[in-house]
Inverse folding.
């Protein structure tokens, strides 16, 4: 059977770094509060004029170089973002053009912090049906543009960045020993749409709006939703926490990651945490964390990777894959 394997990955973080101390003059907060409650120590912020397409293009080029393929071999580009350059066209077509791709197709996918999981799962579907052989999946965000910089409950949490993977068709036996995506599970529940949202948009206010979040409410639901989709992945494959080599969660809050890992029985040394370095970068956070871990030389061929995310919508999902 056809499986979708990640054959390359890359990331890009804007040069400008904002530390927790940099917020101390802006809002009533402290490095101690931010580190204790979130694990975040710094985030990267796009410079003026630097866009989601700029970040996504750089991550995409890095992923293509890592995969050792040219853009001519890519059939489809899926960009996960909630911060597109423009309301339309899709930022994916801007990146497609910049990469010099004149064939195939490109589109954006929007599931906020779960965006990368949704886009990767979409790529898997296109590949397994034979519609595409190689898909470039990008998560890129400039969340700094959505923040209310006077609201301490949100502005300290987010950052800008991009990560990308090249996903390609490989032959598998149909067992959990195969290379590639073994199972994927997506969920959403719009009943929670007002707990994490942007208070503007083209069809409502005609403005971009600002990010609003009931942080405690999101936190309250996060661990249960995350474990729900991970248990679904285990049930679908017969695999379990003991089999996981690397747990690569969405990087929103260190406490959510540690509570989820604890509930699932995944040890700390197998849990990837990079939120300290880049804050919550929404759809970019999983490919950023993945690329960091790959660059550190930690992930080996054959390792079992568990990816998960939960965010606005609510949306949540998991992907279990063999490297
Ligand atoms: O990407 C997916 C979606 N996002 C998330 O996963 C985020 C989920 N939520 C969280 O990570 C946490 O709820 C937060 C980090 C947002 C907040 O942590 P918390 O432990 O839930 O704190 P809290 O909201 O209960 O606030 C505790 C106190 C409050 O003061 P009072 O009411 O106790 O006097 C807040 O006003 O901390 C205050 N506070 C702050 N203090 C200093 C809130 N933000 C700040 C701040 N600095 N930046």
């Amino acid at each position: 059977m056809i499986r979708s394997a990640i054959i390359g990955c890359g990331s890009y973080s804007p040069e400008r770094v904002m530390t927790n101390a940099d917020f101390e003059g802006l809002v009533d907060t402290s490095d101690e509060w931010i580190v204790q409650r979130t694990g975040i120590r710094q985030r990267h912020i796009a410079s003026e004029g630097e866009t989601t397409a700029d970040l996504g293009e750089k991550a995409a080029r890095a992923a293509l170089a890592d995969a050792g393929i040219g853009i001519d071999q890519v059939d489809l580009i899926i960009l996960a973002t909630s911060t597109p350059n423009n309301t339309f066209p899709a930022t994916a077509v801007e990146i497609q053009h910049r990469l010099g791709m004149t064939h195939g197709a490109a589109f954006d996918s929007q599931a906020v912090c779960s965006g990368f999981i949704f886009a990767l799962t979409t790529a898997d579907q296109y590949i397994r049906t034979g519609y595409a052989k190689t898909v470039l999946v990008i998560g890129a965000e400039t969340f700094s543009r959505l923040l209310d910089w006077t609201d301490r409950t949100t502005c300290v949490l987010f950052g800008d960045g991009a990560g990308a993977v090249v996903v390609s068709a490989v032959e598998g036996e149909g067992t959990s020993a195969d290379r590639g995506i073994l199972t994927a599970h997506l969920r959403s529940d719009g009943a929670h749409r007002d707990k994490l949202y942007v208070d503007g948009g083209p069809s409502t206010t005609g403005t971009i709006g600002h990010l609003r979040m009931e942080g405690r409410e999101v936190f309250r639901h996060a661990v249960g939703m995350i474990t729900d989709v991970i248990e679904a992945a285990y049930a679908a494959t017969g695999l379990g926490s003991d089999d996981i080599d690397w747990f690569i969660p969405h990087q929103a809050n260190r406490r959510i990651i540690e509570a989820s890992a604890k509930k699932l029985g995944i040890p700390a040394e197998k849990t990837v945490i990079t939120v300290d370095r880049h804050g919550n970068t929404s759809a970019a956070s999983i490919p950023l964390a993945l690329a960091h871990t790959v660059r550190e030389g930690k992930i080996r061929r054959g390792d079992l990777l568990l990816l998960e995310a939960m965010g606005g919508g609510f949306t949540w999902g998991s992907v279990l894959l063999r490297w």
